[in-house]
Specification:
heterodimer; A: 11 helices; B: mainly alpha; elongated
């Protein structure tokens, strides 16, 4: 049974059929929430909210895009809201973090594929990601962690392909410039 | 392509979003351009360090918890959209304002200038008229004005 058939059943009153949609898309939605929020408890709460919002709006789902893209868009906007609220809290700037964690940065970037070094640096990694502007963090997670194509990112973020390319370029260039000192020649 | 154009296409190349001739040209450029090669290598390290995909562990109870919450909601597609939820209160408020302004002039007790002229010179009558509980007819006012003191 495909997603549109399940949606028809849910809309005709068979609420329990919605569980198929949840199970089908939970990994993707939870993965995005975890990638953006970096907190398993917060990510699960956010993912639950995303499925509830999608259920409440199901009557307005036109089927112009796939259910997968549609729920991804809801998840993206929901997490963006959380990140924006969080970014109003005072946090260390990226420059301050780099200055404070110079040794850690150097160790991490000299062995970026070493999972034990990454594990040891997880707090610092989270601080760096939190210090990024929410837009940068979101687009980098969508591309690097979730592995979405430019087309899928543009659909999730409601923007053009050119905009996706430009935002990714800006986010990467800025991060690379800040960390250049630790990256060697 | 010029160096700046290759530089601009660098991340599309990294993301495997560049195809055909452009990809081949950029591959050739990378063999000769140390700066572009270094930027690609730098980004690759940053991505591995900061954006390594985390192992996802979705608990078995996740879908059940979502469905428990959904069980407390109205059936999908039957809840009124936000616009309609506001429509009825807005309509009610509009109606109340309309009735207030439409009915108030009918019930208010006013004495017209014409009526007051009929009691010309009789201040007491005028003030009395102005505070009558209901507006009297013109004959009544005339009689009232001509009444001997």
């Amino acid at each position: 049974m495909n997603d549109s058939e399940i949606i028809k059943r849910v809309l005709s009153g068979e609420t329990e059929a919605y569980e198929h949609l949840v199970r089908e898309h939970q990994n993707k939605v939870l993965g995005l929430c975890l990638g953006l929020l970096s907190d398993p408890v917060l990510a699960e709460d956010a993912a639950q909210e995303v499925f509830i919002k999608a259920y409440e709006s199901l009557g307005r789902f036109r089927g112009e895009s796939s259910f997968s893209t549609w729920i991804y868009r809801i998840a993206f906007h929901h997490c963006q809201d959380i990140l924006r609220k969080r970014s109003r809290r005072p946090t260390e700037s990226l420059d301050q973090l780099i200055e404070c964690h110079g040794d850690g940065m150097e160790r991490l970037l000299s062995k970026p594929d070493d999972s034990s070094v990454r594990q040891d640096s997880s707090d610092m990694i989270e601080k760096v990601l939190s210090a990024l502007p929410p837009d940068y963090r979101t687009i980098l997670v969508l591309r690097e962690v979730q592995g979405l194509s430019y087309q899928e990112i543009s659909e999730a973020m409601d923007c053009s392909l050119d905009s996706v390319k430009a935002r990714l370029r800006r986010a990467r260039s800025e991060l690379e410039q800040k960390l250049r000192h630790f990256l060697g020649p | 392509m010029r160096h700046e154009e290759f530089e601009e296409a660098l991340y599309s190349f990294y993301d495997r979003e560049l195809s055909g001739q452009k990809r081949l040209e950029l591959e050739e450029h990378l063999k000769a351009c140390a700066e572009c090669s270094r930027r690609l290598e730098h980004w690759s390290k940053i991505a591995q360090a900061f954006f390594a995909p985390e192992k996802l562990d979705v608990s078995e109870g996740f879908a059940r918890r979502v469905m428990q919450r959904i069980g407390r909601l109205e059936p999908a597609g039957q809840g009124a959209p936000a616009f309609y939820r506001w429509l009825f209160p807005a309509f009610g408020l509009g109606l109340a304002v309309f009735l207030f302004f439409a009915i108030l002039p009918e019930t208010a007790e006013w004495v017209s200038a014409e009526d007051l002229l009929l009691v010309d010179g009789t201040e007491a009558a005028a003030s009395e008229l102005a505070f009558l509980p209901s507006a009297p007819g013109q004959d009544e006012i005339l009689g009232y004005a001509l009444e001997e003191p």
